[in-house]
Amino acid sequence: MTTPQGDYDVREMGYPGWEMGLADRNFEMIHTNGVNLRCVVEGEGPLIILMHGWPQCWYLWRHQIDPLIEQGWKVCVPDQRGFGESDCPPDISDYGVLALSADIDGLATALGYDQYALMIHDWGAIVGWNVALLYPDRVRAVVAMSNPYTRHIQPQIFDEEYWGDTFFYIAHFCGNVGTAEAHLDQDVRQSVLQLHCWAGGDHDPRIPGKGQMQILDALPQPPKELPSWMTVEDLDYYTEMYESSGFRGGLNWYRAFPNLLQNTQSLEGVKVPQPCIFIQGSNDVVAKMIPNGHLEAQCEDLRGEFFLDGPGHWLPVEAKEEVTRISLEFLAEFV
After folding, report:
1. Is 122 a catalytic residue?
2. 3-state class (DSSP) for residue 31
3. Does residue 52 have an active-site annotation?
4. Backbone angles phi, psi at 274, to 5 degrees
5. For the chain, how long is the longest CA-to-CA vector?
6. Residue 4 confidence (pLDDT)
7. Secondary structure of residue 9 in the 3-state scheme
8. How many CB atoms lie within 10 A of CB 70?
9. Are 309 and 274 in contact (CB under 8 A)?
10. Given this model, what pLDDT does residue 14 score?
11. Which of 229, 237, 215 is nearest to 84 (CA)?
12. What's the CA gap between 264 and 175, in Å, rounded?
């Protein structure tokens, strides 16, 4: 589906604080499901919770927060479990999909809301789809990006032996507990930069590395100039966050992934009941791993699929204006 022409032009909205600085954001530490999650909490109105992925934190959504507030939402944007300034329990068992989903639902309860909408990306989408299914009476609507809902997860992909000489990063994370994060922690700035550049739409997402090696050795080196969607300040902030949290928490989301289907057997054959949309970039590495065209069969009320020409995996920053416009047009019904 092509991007529709609607009434929202984010370049002409004149939102106050469209690029609000970090010092101006309102952070709250919210206790939920046994952990403390640092969240940006701002605005008045119905609640929407924004869920990021890896290697990110709340900062992924920096361009969408103010437009959502202006539209009339109360926005909650957590550093999710294992990320940023939130709690980072060390055990893999602490990162199962049921616990991660309960974290999000608990945020709504802590803020005094019975219902909420979701905006989800990457790992935030994998877990977010499950939040919608596990809490069908609580979740009102879903804006999903990059990762479509699927239960077609083959267990062998988590085993490095299955891949032979082909480097597959998820299997690498699962098979190298301790060493994978230690490698990334050695030079956090280089790790953040290289991982982001690899999955951006202006770079080849293929991993040229062969055999069992560390991920930064397998990925191509970043360009000398930062991509257009990343500033020095962005890189500084992500570096600061990962120097604080380390990489172990985020990698544990991958390591708990093999148990997702077993832990959610009750959801087998159940369609996502809420109104939802899906947005993906044409150069998203996920599109090469999870084929498109099956989402309508997984959702009861899929309002649209939007495939944007050019962007890679980091849609909220690579295509910030299009993503914001498409999201606001869909969400206007629910404010």
Report:
1. yes
2. strand
3. no
4. -80, 155
5. 54
6. 38
7. coil
8. 17
9. no
10. 42
11. 237
12. 23
pLDDT at site 210: 65
Instruction: State how far the Cα of 270 lies from the Cα of 247, in Å rounded to an integer.
Output: 33
pLDDT of residue 20: 59
- How many C-beta neighbours within 10 Å does residue 232 have? 8
Residue 166 in tokens = 């082909």
- Asked if 140 and 239 touch (Cβ cutoff 8 Å), the reply is no
Task: Give the separation between CA 64 and CA 69, rounded to whole angstroms.
Answer: 9
Q: Judge contact between 31 and 110, C-beta under 8 A.
A: yes
Single out the catalytic residue among 66, 105, 122, 284. Answer: 122
Triad 325, 38, 276: Cα angle to 5°: 35
d(CA 229, CA 37): 27
Contact 139, 165 (CB under 8 A): no
What are phi and psi for residue 301, nearest 5 degrees? -145, 60
- Paired with 117 in beta bridges are 48
Q: Give the pLDDT of residue 128.
A: 98
- Phi-psi domain of 94 (left: phi exceeds 0; alpha: psi -120 through 50; beta: other): alpha
pLDDT value, residue 19 = 52
Nearest to 319 by CA among 118, 146, 77: 146
In one-letter notation, the amino acid at residue 101 is S
3 state DSSP class of 281: strand
6-15 contact pairs (CB < 8 A, 24+): 6/325, 6/329, 7/329, 8/324, 8/325, 8/328, 8/329, 9/325, 10/67, 10/320, 10/321, 10/324, 10/325, 10/328, 11/321, 13/67, 13/70, 15/66, 15/67, 15/70
User: Options 3.40.50.1820, 3.30.70.100, 3.90.190.20, 3.30.428.10; which CATH number does 22-334 get?
Assistant: 3.40.50.1820
pLDDT digits (tens, 9 = 90+) for 174-222: 999 999 999 999 999 999 999 999 999 887 666 665 666 899 999 989 9
Distance CA 18, CA 30 (A): 25
Name the stretches of the chain with pLDDT < 50.
1-18
